[in-house]
Every structure is written in structure tokens, then in C-alpha cells.
UniProtKB/TrEMBL annotation:
Coiled coil: none annotated. Residues 25-395 form the Aminotransferase class V domain. InterPro entries: Aminotrans_V_dom (IPR000192), Cys_dSase-rel (IPR011340), PyrdxlP-dep_Trfase (IPR015424), PyrdxlP-dep_Trfase_major (IPR015421), PyrdxlP-dep_Trfase_small (IPR015422). It holds the Pfam family Aminotran_5. SUPFAM superfamilies: PLP-dependent transferases (SSF53383). This is Cysteine desulfurase-like protein. It comes from the Bacteria.
Length: 406
């Protein structure tokens, strides 16, 4: 059943930190934590939760917390709970997969990466390929449009390609590449597809099967959760991968890929964050997966309308230069104000209570290719589901004032 129109007041009520009065355009670097998430984390730290053991209740609670978190992430992404691997960060998980897969690579193999991606989905693959003597092949974005043209992959992907790494959405300019089309070119030659979903997951419904992703990584702290990440794949895919590990640790999937004792409190927070996302449309019904699809579709529509207001307003300010990007994108824009260094713009906005990052945001290849990195990158403003029209108008007025004096 379809839910009601997105209610911003309903969404914002879950974030006590908003009471401090800051205007947050920094969720791409890390969103605020929802109150149910903080409560779930607190409950674990205050309760009797031991390390995992079937022998006593506190140990069984830990087992249940881990299982609940796997089911929650699986519901969020349309994945199999038995294929959910947790790690400290998306970066650490990409390195884990790259180093494990790379054990079988050699000089006859190729890896395709993109200059649109966050460096976490570039450097691990480049470094492992170099170590193994494999060839790195680069997909280029169109600097005039911000698109990642799909047609180039027809030439880039060959029968030597072992893996294609691509983002589901650029963390710099929001571009959503056509991941299913890229995967459809990769799979017939036996190549795996690793999708960076860190920036995309908070802003739209996700179905890893529809994307054609063999691996999909996401960070909970980008969708109102704790600082924890997950990488999902088919359990059968994980089964033939063997990372270096301690001898006494479990050889089962997915535990084989999780090193040491996990943070049970953070995992409880992950489950709470997914439940929170599922309730963003208060009229959504059905299973948690169904409620997630409904709520995140409502989020997508709400953010798109607000983002159009932001981009249109910035484009109308004399002296503001936007980084080119397609109209259909995640709600993220990068810009410069006259000749002002981006770090200075960010600082001045911060003094006005507006949170917006400046720099290259680890989109190293993008800002290098555009020639902007050496002069400070750009200022990034993103819409999240707790952003209001008033927030946008306050940002636009502040940028307009800066532009007049830049």
C-alpha cells in the first residue's frame, strides 16, 4: 500500500540534535543519528550483553543482535542476510574484498575503475592490481555533463576483465551511473561488479539484484546509524573467497570476513537505523522490506523537490559556479563562490551556523581531472530527509551575501 506524502516534521522529530539550530548540508560526510538509534546503542551498553555464547543469556543476546543486524541490512538492500559482512568502514571492507579477490589476479587480468568514484572504490583496486601485475583500465566521466557514459564500457570490458568497480552515486556531484547496464556488460565475460553504494543508499530504494551488483557496500552513518559499514554479496560468492584470518576464528560465511569481536552496541544501532528508515512514511505498511521501499521512495521524491530549489537558487547567484552534473542525480551539488577558496567559503558558512564541507571529499580522481583539486576542490551541499525549505533558503541567502563580496 502506498504511504502518505512525506512529512518533514515527522522526520525531523526523530533527531534531537536538530534542536541545536545548525543548518545541516553535510550528511554526505555523515548524517545526524536518529533518537531510536542512540537509544538502541545505549540499551546494549547498559544491559547484560556478553560476547557471543550459547551457554548463557547475555551471550545469546549478542548472537541475536548480530543476526538482527544482518536481517536489517538485507531488508534495506534486498540482499540475503547470510551474505551480509560487517566492518568498521566502507574503505576497510573494499580493501578486504580487493585483497582477497586479488590473490588470484595476474598479468593477464584487468580491473576497470572510474574517475567518478570515491577513492575508497578506486585506490584499493589500483593498489592490488599493481601488486599482482594486473592492468588498471579507467572509465572517464564527461566533464561537460558530469555523466559516466555507459557506452565506453563496451570497449573497456574485455574477456580479460576480472572486476568492474563503479559507484551507485557520486559523492561529489550526485551522478547516478547506469549500474545495471554496466553489470550487463561485465557479467557475460565473467567479471564481477563491485558497487559503492555509500552515497546512494540514504536517498533511494536499493535492490542489489536489480543493480547487478556482485558486491555492494554501504555505511550506516550515512543513513542515520552508527559508524559501521556492511558489504553484501551472495553467500555462494563469499564461500569461495578466503581472506587471511586467525586460525581459531570461524571459517563460516559471513563470519569468515569479520575480524575480532564486533561492536554489539553499534550493530543494535544498525537495526534501529533500518527500522527508523522504514518508518519515514508513517503510513507505509507490509513487511519491513516493503515499508523501506515505500519510505525511501517518499524520501527520494521529497529530496528531489527540495534539491531543485537549492540548485536553481545557486545557479541564479552571480559569481557562483556549479560543478556540471546531470539533472537526475542524488541530491548533492558542488560549487565555488567567485575566486574564494572553498575552505574559506565553508568557514564563513560555518560561522553562520551552516554546515557544508569543502575540499575533494576523497573524490580524488574527479577533482584532479577537473583541475579543481589543486586549488581547494569545491564546497558541497547535500539534501537529507531532515533538510527543510527554510534551511535551503538560509543557505542561498548566505551564499548570495558571500558572492557579493567574493
Amino acid at each position: 500500500m502506498a504511504g502518505m506524502a512525506f512529512e518533514i516534521a515527522w522526520a525531523r522529530a526523530a533527531y534531537p540534535a536538530l534542536g541545536e539550530g545548525f543548518r545541516h548540508f553535510d550528511a554526505a560526510a555523515g548524517s545526524l543519528v536518529a533518537e531510536p538509534v542512540a537509544a538502541a546503542v545505549d540499551a546494549v551498553y547498559r544491559g547484560a550483553v556478553a560476547n557471543r555464547s550459547e551457554a548463557f543469556a547475555p551471550g545469546r543476546r549478542a548472537i541475536g543482535i548480530v543476526a538482527d543486524a544482518r536481517r536489517a541490512v538485507a531488508d534495506l538492500l534486498g540482499a540475503d542476510p547470510a551474505g551480509v559482512v560487517f566492518g568498521n568502514s566502507a574503505t576497510s571492507l573494499v580493501y578486504l574484498v580487493a585483497r582477497t579477490l586479488g590473490q588470484s589476479w595476474g598479468p593477464d587480468d584487468e580491473v576497470v575503475v572510474s574517475r567518478l568514484d570515491h577513492d575508497a572504490n578506486v585506490r584499493p583496486w589500483v593498489q592490488v592490481a599493481e601488486e599482482r601485475g594486473a592492468t588498471v583500465v579507467w572509465a572517464e566521466f564527461d566533464p561537460a555533463t558530469g555523466e559516466l557514459p555507459t557506452l565506453q564500457y563496451r570497449d573497456l570490458i574485455t574477456d580479460r576483465t576480472r572486476l568492474v568497480a563503479v559507484t551507485a552515486a557520486s559523492n561529489a556531484i550526485g551522478t547516478r551511473p547506469d549500474v545495471p547496464a554496466i553489470a550487463a556488460l561485465a557479467h557475460p565475460v565473467g567479471a564481477l561488479v563491485f558497487v559503492d553504494g555509500v552515497h546512494a543508499t540514504p536517498h533511494q530504494p536499493t535492490d542489489v539484484t536489480a543493480l547487478g551488483a556482485d558486491f555492494y557496500v554501504t555505511s550506516a552513518y550515512k543513513w542515520s546509524g552508527p559508524h559501521l559499514a556492511a558489504c553484501v554479496a551472495d553467500p555462494d560468492t563469499w564461500a569461495w573467497m578466503f581472506p587471511p584470518k586467525l586460525r581459531p576464528s570461524s571459517d563460516a560465511v559471513p563470519e569468515r570476513f569479520e575480524f575480532g569481536t564486533p561492536s554489539f552496541a553499534s550493530l543494535a544501532g544498525v537495526t534501529a537505523a533500518v527500522d527508523h528508515l522504514a518508518g519515514l512514511d508513517p503510513a507505509a505498511t507490509g513487511t519491513r522490506r516493503e515499508r523501506l521501499l515505500t519510505s525511501l521512495a517518499a524520501v527520494r521524491d521529497y529530496e528531489a523537490d527540495l534539491f531543485a530549489r537549492l540548485v536553481g537558487g545557486l545557479a541564479a547567484i552571480d559569481g557562483v559556479r556549479l560543478c556540471p552534473a546531470p539533472a537526475d542525480r542524488c541530491p548533492t551539488v558542488s560549487f565555488r563562490v567567485g575566486g574564494q577558496p572553498p575552505a574559506e567559503t565553508s568557514k564563513l558558512l560555518g560561522e553562520a551556523g551552516i554546515c557544508a564541507f569543502a575540499g575533494d571529499y576523497y573524490a580524488w580522481e574527479y577533482f584532479t581531472a577537473t583541475g579543481l583539486r589543486e586549488t581547494g576542490g569545491a564546497v558541497r551541499a547535500g539534501i537529507y530527509h531532515y533538510t527543510t525549505a527554510e534551511d535551503v533558503d538560509v543557505l542561498l541567502e548566505a551564499v548570495r551575501a558571500l558572492a557579493e563580496h567574493a
